[in-house]
UniProtKB/TrEMBL annotation:
Taxonomic source organism: Bradyrhizobium retamae
Protein name in UniProt: Uncharacterized protein
Superkingdom per UniProt: Bacteria
Length: 68
């Protein structure tokens, strides 16, 4: 059980770390005179759309299962 919880926490920490890294590289604070043009590691717009589709599908499936 500890291993499973550790894997979940590690995955969450990884996603949080990548999000913070991307937001710092593309923030207005980090785009001063010495900032380099850089791309983000993750296309967060696509992630948001996929997350919304996943939530919608899960909700629809839950409604379908609970109506039986």
């Amino acid at each position: 059980m500890r291993t499973f919880v550790g894997m979940i926490l590690g995955a969450l920490l990884l996603v949080f770390g990548v999000y913070v890294y991307d937001s710092m590289r593309t923030s207005s604070v980090a785009s001063g005179q010495v900032a380099q043009a850089s791309r983000t590691l993750v296309n967060w717009d696509v992630v948001a759309e996929d997350w919304k589709a996943l939530k919608t599908r899960a909700h629809d499936d839950w409604v379908k299962l609970s109506s039986r």
